[in-house]
Design goal:
2 domains; binds adenosine-5'-diphosphate; 3-stranded antiparallel β-sheet; 15-stranded mixed β-sheet; Molybdenum Cofactor Biosythetic Enzyme, Chain A; single chain
Length: 422
């Protein structure tokens, strides 16, 4: 048992887990992200661990089972508080999975009260009178209204969560939060007396989250987006420090692989090309036609790696992506490109790459899996939401990885990332 593990987190998706770990590190905690529930004990010392699951849109019973498995592992590592992390847009369906997972964790922990707030003011997610805002829009008027898997058509989180829960859901509103710790504590007592077991909490600013923080100190379970994480390390006497994000020194060759077609990534690829970097485009139609794109790409990269970072990308503009999807099918095209890029990434590591940037959420998942990496130490942030990470692949080789979800990062992200490691 590791007595120094303070917060054990269960995240319902991969990039969300990184986002949370990044916030914990920036608030002073040494943090590790694991990909799935590890088979053995933690490989490095950490004050916070985030177990990344893929439970956001699985059937509720499956999400509950995976979350309880993560809980048992975190408890075995000695975690003193459990944090269930979901998306800052409260992504869920009428069946769950936020409510069912919260209640299962409460049952397992014997927790009689917890909070729920996706508020992340740094990312323009605020909760006011129980209503979630995305920027200036109600959640139900934002793009989330049309999400393919978890369309959010009601911005009232008390109502949304109550529909998923047996326990009674209540609200701690912005006036109470603004009044500070004693007022919040009093409201929690009043809610408990009314039989409320889960309270949605308003938060309009980081100050609100910081006022909320001390009242969470003795809760066995906290449920939230990544925002609340900024307020928890202080409960353990930890303050923000550079030391929390320190990683082993980076060495080896550098590469970027990109399977993201998001606007930000398209700009980043253009910027890398404009700067004269060595780059090669992957054509999904060639992969589909049976060409050995992986071998061809690695043969191209081999003589160039010593000269600086290389970029391998399938990144394309929407028109080109649509054409490929029309020819191959959306899911098939996606899975095929992900497999190819992940295999190229693994081949680049065989060629000596030890500093790897991966662009794309799904692409990152596929790459980390292909490399057989299951624990990542979280390091310094390149751009908001994207830290450098450090881990060992299945062969025990130490790697620095930056896993960038599509729309994150400035145009010069790729060069900036490597500069930060030097
Ligand atoms: P993001 O984080 O930007 O959403 P992802 O990696 O999660 O990026 O998703 C991008 C998806 O698009 C992946 O499934 C990837 O394989 C697929 N893809 C990448 N390039 C192309 C392309 N040129 N044509 C069609 N699909 C592509």
């Amino acid at each position: 048992m590791r007595a120094n593990l303070l917060i054990g987190c269960i995240a319902d998706d991969f990039t969300g887990a990184t986002d949370l770990a990044n916030n914990l590190v920036r608030s002073g905690m040494r943090a590790v992200q694991t990909i799935g529930v590890p088979a053995g004990p933690l490989a490095v010392e950490a004050e916070a661990v985030v177990v990344a699951l893929k439970s956001r849109t699985t059937p509720p019973a499956q999400a509950v089972q995976a979350s309880l498995e993560a809980l048992r592992w975190l408890q075995a590592q000695g975690a003193r508080q459990i944090y269930f992390k979901y998306c800052s847009t409260f992504d869920s369906t009428a069946q769950g999975n936020i409510g069912p997972v919260t209640e299962a964790l409460m049952d397992a922990l014997g927790a009689t009260f917890t909070i729920a707030t996706p508020a992340f003011p740094d990312n323009q997610r605020t909760v006011f009178k129980g209503y979630l805002f995305v920027g200036d829009m109600l959640l139900s008027e934002s793009g989330m209204r049309d999400h393919p898997l978890t369309p959010m058509t009601d911005a009232n989180l008390v109502r949304v969560l109550q529909a998923q829960c047996r326990r009674k859901v209540g609200l701690i509103d912005y006036r109470t939060v603004a009044a500070g710790e004693p007022a919040i504590q009093k409201r929690i007592e009043a809610l408990r007396a009314e039989g409320v077991a889960i309270a949605v909490v308003d938060a309009l600013s980081n100050d609100d989250l910081l006022r909320l923080g001390p009242t969470l100190k003795d809760l066995p379970l906290v449920t939230a987006g990544s925002g609340v994480a900024i307020a928890l390390p202080a409960n353990f006497g930890i303050r923000a420090s550079e030391a929390a994000s320190r990683l082993p020194t980076a060495a080896g060759m550098r590469a970027v692989v990109s399977g993201s077609c998001s606007q930000a990534t398209n700009r980043q690829v253009r910027a890398f090309l404009a700067s004269g970097g060595h780059a090669i485009a992957i054509d999904p139609l060639r992969i589909a036609a049976g060409a050995d794109v992986v071998a061809d790409t690695l043969a191209w990269a081999r003589p160039l790696l010593a000269k600086g970072p290389v970029l391998v990308y399938s990144t394309a503009e929407p028109g080109a992506v649509k054409a490929v999807q029309g020819a191959l099918g959306v899911e098939q095209a996606g899975a095929m490109v992900e497999r190819a890029i992940a295999a190229i990434a693994a081949g680049l590591v065989d060629l000596g790459v030890r500093q790897l940037v991966v662009a794309g959420g799904e692409t990152s998942g596929a790459t980390v899996q292909a490399l057989g990496i299951n624990q990542l130490q979280i390091g310094p942030q390149v751009d908001p939401g994207v830290p450098w990470c450090w881990g060992r692949d299945a062969g025990g080789r130490a790697l620095h990885l930056a896993l960038k979800s599509g729309n994150f990062g400035a145009d010069d992200f790729f060069s900036k990332a490597f500069a930060l490691l030097q």
